[in-house]
Amino acid sequence: MAWLILCIAGLLEIGWTMGLKLSDGFTKLVPTILTLALAMFSIYLVSLSARSIPVGTAYAVWAGVGAVGTVIFGIIIFAEPVSIARFACVGLIVAGIIGLKLVDGSA
Protein backbone atom coordinates (compact mmCIF):
# COMPACT_ATOMS: atom_id res chain seq x y z
CA MET A 1 0.00 0.00 0.00
CA ALA A 2 2.88 2.39 0.77
CA TRP A 3 4.18 2.09 -2.79
CA LEU A 4 0.74 2.88 -4.23
CA ILE A 5 0.49 5.94 -1.98
CA LEU A 6 3.97 6.98 -3.06
CA CYS A 7 3.06 6.64 -6.75
CA ILE A 8 -0.03 8.79 -6.23
CA ALA A 9 2.16 11.36 -4.45
CA GLY A 10 4.48 11.34 -7.47
CA LEU A 11 1.58 11.92 -9.84
CA LEU A 12 0.41 14.81 -7.69
CA GLU A 13 3.92 16.23 -7.84
CA ILE A 14 3.64 16.30 -11.62
CA GLY A 15 0.41 18.24 -11.19
CA TRP A 16 1.83 20.85 -8.88
CA THR A 17 4.98 21.35 -10.91
CA MET A 18 2.84 21.94 -13.97
CA GLY A 19 0.85 24.34 -11.81
CA LEU A 20 4.01 26.34 -11.11
CA LYS A 21 4.16 27.22 -14.79
CA LEU A 22 0.42 27.85 -15.07
CA SER A 23 0.37 30.07 -11.97
CA ASP A 24 2.77 32.46 -13.73
CA GLY A 25 4.91 33.05 -10.67
CA PHE A 26 1.92 32.80 -8.32
CA THR A 27 0.27 35.77 -10.00
CA LYS A 28 -2.85 33.85 -11.13
CA LEU A 29 -5.14 33.02 -8.22
CA VAL A 30 -6.81 29.75 -9.25
CA PRO A 31 -3.68 28.01 -10.57
CA THR A 32 -1.80 29.20 -7.47
CA ILE A 33 -4.39 27.75 -5.08
CA LEU A 34 -4.51 24.45 -6.99
CA THR A 35 -0.71 24.28 -7.10
CA LEU A 36 -0.37 24.82 -3.36
CA ALA A 37 -3.14 22.31 -2.57
CA LEU A 38 -1.58 19.64 -4.80
CA ALA A 39 1.85 20.28 -3.28
CA MET A 40 0.58 19.95 0.28
CA PHE A 41 -1.37 16.76 -0.46
CA SER A 42 1.58 15.29 -2.37
CA ILE A 43 3.95 15.95 0.53
CA TYR A 44 1.41 14.50 2.97
CA LEU A 45 1.22 11.29 0.93
CA VAL A 46 5.02 11.04 0.82
CA SER A 47 5.05 11.33 4.61
CA LEU A 48 2.55 8.48 4.85
CA SER A 49 4.57 6.26 2.55
CA ALA A 50 7.74 7.03 4.51
CA ARG A 51 6.23 5.21 7.49
CA SER A 52 7.12 1.90 5.85
CA ILE A 53 9.50 2.84 3.01
CA PRO A 54 12.92 4.23 3.91
CA VAL A 55 12.66 8.02 3.74
CA GLY A 56 15.58 8.35 1.31
CA THR A 57 13.97 5.85 -1.05
CA ALA A 58 10.54 7.45 -0.72
CA TYR A 59 11.89 10.91 -1.43
CA ALA A 60 14.02 9.79 -4.37
CA VAL A 61 11.15 7.88 -5.98
CA TRP A 62 8.72 10.75 -5.39
CA ALA A 63 11.11 13.29 -6.88
CA GLY A 64 12.01 10.94 -9.73
CA VAL A 65 8.40 10.24 -10.69
CA GLY A 66 7.73 13.97 -10.55
CA ALA A 67 10.79 14.83 -12.62
CA VAL A 68 10.10 12.24 -15.31
CA GLY A 69 6.43 13.15 -15.54
CA THR A 70 7.16 16.86 -15.58
CA VAL A 71 9.63 16.46 -18.44
CA ILE A 72 7.14 14.40 -20.45
CA PHE A 73 4.19 16.72 -19.79
CA GLY A 74 6.40 19.77 -20.41
CA ILE A 75 7.17 18.40 -23.86
CA ILE A 76 3.53 17.55 -24.58
CA ILE A 77 1.78 20.58 -23.04
CA PHE A 78 4.34 23.39 -23.22
CA ALA A 79 6.22 22.32 -26.37
CA GLU A 80 9.51 22.13 -24.46
CA PRO A 81 12.57 20.89 -26.37
CA VAL A 82 12.86 17.23 -27.30
CA SER A 83 16.27 15.60 -27.64
CA ILE A 84 17.91 12.23 -27.33
CA ALA A 85 20.02 13.60 -24.46
CA ARG A 86 16.91 14.62 -22.48
CA PHE A 87 15.35 11.20 -22.95
CA ALA A 88 18.61 9.50 -22.01
CA CYS A 89 18.68 11.48 -18.77
CA VAL A 90 15.03 10.61 -18.10
CA GLY A 91 15.98 6.97 -18.68
CA LEU A 92 18.68 7.26 -16.03
CA ILE A 93 16.13 8.63 -13.56
CA VAL A 94 13.75 5.76 -14.35
CA ALA A 95 16.59 3.26 -13.89
CA GLY A 96 17.33 4.80 -10.50
CA ILE A 97 13.68 4.57 -9.43
CA ILE A 98 13.52 0.91 -10.47
CA GLY A 99 16.81 0.21 -8.72
CA LEU A 100 15.63 1.78 -5.49
CA LYS A 101 12.42 -0.25 -5.59
CA LEU A 102 14.40 -3.47 -6.16
CA VAL A 103 16.82 -2.92 -3.30
CA ASP A 104 14.23 -1.59 -0.84
CA GLY A 105 12.79 -4.98 0.00
CA SER A 106 9.35 -3.73 1.12
CA ALA A 107 6.31 -4.91 -0.79
From TrEMBL:
It is found in: Cell membrane. It is a multi-pass membrane protein. GO terms for molecular function: transmembrane transporter activity. InterPro entries: EmrE-like (IPR037185), Small_drug/metabolite_transptr (IPR000390), Small_multidrug_res (IPR045324). This is Guanidinium exporter. The chain crosses the membrane at residues 29-47, 59-78, 84-103. One of its GO terms (cellular component) is plasma membrane. It comes from the Bacteria. One of its GO terms (biological process) is xenobiotic detoxification by transmembrane export across the plasma membrane. Keywords: Cell membrane, Membrane, Transmembrane, Transmembrane helix, Transport. Gene3D superfamilies: 1.10.3730.20. The keyword Magnesium does not apply. Belongs to the drug/metabolite transporter (DMT) superfamily. Small multidrug resistance (SMR) (TC 2.A.7.1) family. Gdx/SugE subfamily.
